[in-house]
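[job 4471] stage=fold_predict status=RUNNING
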Amino acid sequence: MLNLELTKITEICSAELVCSNSVNFEKIKHQKISGVTIDSRKAGKGFVFVASKGERRDGHEFIRDVFEKGAVAVICEHIPEDYEEYPGVFFKVENSIEALKTLAREYRRILGDTVKVVGITGSVGKTSTKEFVASVLSRHYKVHKTQGNQNNQIGVPLEILSISDDTEVAVLEMGISEFGEMERLSEFARPDICIITNIGECHLENLGDRDGVLKAKTAIFTSMSENGEVILNGFDDKLCTVGEVNGKKPFRFGRNIDDVYATDIKDRGLLGSDITVNIAANPKDSFKVHVPLPGKHMINNALTSTMAGIIMGLTTEEIISGIEAVRATSGRSNVIKTDSYILIDDCYNANPTSMKAAIDMLMIAEGRKVAILGDMFELGTDEAKLHENVGRYAAGSGVEVIICIGKLAKHMYDGAMSALMCEKQEIYYFPEKKDFSARKNILCEGDTILIKASNGMHFNTILEELK
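[job 4471] inference complete, writing structure tokens
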């Protein structure tokens, strides 16, 4: 249940209240709502449905459906002619999405200091970092975390509006692709802790270069709380240029000169790593922990969540328990064992930085290693070169079988061919997924197979075929 009454929605959104004669608004105006959604399929008892016009359908078409499911109110831009037949309340506004954003902004203000917000951004690793931080902080607090890919200009407001009144900490992903977007997300979230995972080559079509990415990502600081803290990746050359934020030095993770760093690293392959986490301010509090997900970047996630746990006052035992409890999410470095293969499901999204990290992860596997790689989108004028670099990196890393699929992936194939390390390496190019599907005999039983591309390539269909 949200700490938000129906009557407040009218005030916050400057909405025109409309309801049928069968609805006594005076009787229900102080009723707390259960949730807010723009997806009619998720509307339930006590929900407010935001009817907006999307790319494919207009949410106003589903008003009857949501009331039948128990929704109590609808925020909409026009009222149905037969509104007297509906058993709920209408809040008529000029722009439904802007009303949603206004509602989220005000709800965050209502929550105030009772809920601490951890905002996570960066080019790569937002989701896995969120999982680590949420897992650690949940050992001590009631935690809300971003669900699915709700990290954009609509997703973040929806996540804020799903924070229940008993939540103590909200861990929110904040993703952008253009200048100006992060300022708005920061205004919605008003984070108490800001985490930036890295500054990579992503959304270059709009942001230009890594300096542009740095400028866009660090805008997360614009509306952070006055006494907020910042956690940055000490390995990242661009983030190392960030000196002070609101007069305070950021905490950094990674290097042995940073606030937290790892030593005694024992690689357990796809089973993860055993490490010692060193805490510079209190060396006696350093501890050993098993990081259950594979890849060097997961060690960084363990360090990030350690730093967040320290800031939030957790004990060493709570931090260890939270790190060791993390599990992979679908589409993001998720290892799946089938009867024939070991699959690394990383097909949710891709950019050059995350591609290389995924290839590094593949290389710690045993047996023959196969990389099925596809197009990366939104890379701007250097997209051909960036694809070529990934192909070269895959071949140079020693991946035995490299399969490139998609129009842009032809440059990946060319890069891989130019960097062959030995005659035994196999490199294939297929313009479309269906072309590869006809040649799955390339794969052998016992292969470990990485599947990765931008989400728009829909490589989850390849994953399902192989599963």
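[job 4471] summary: The longest strand covers residues 260-267.
[job 4471] exit 0
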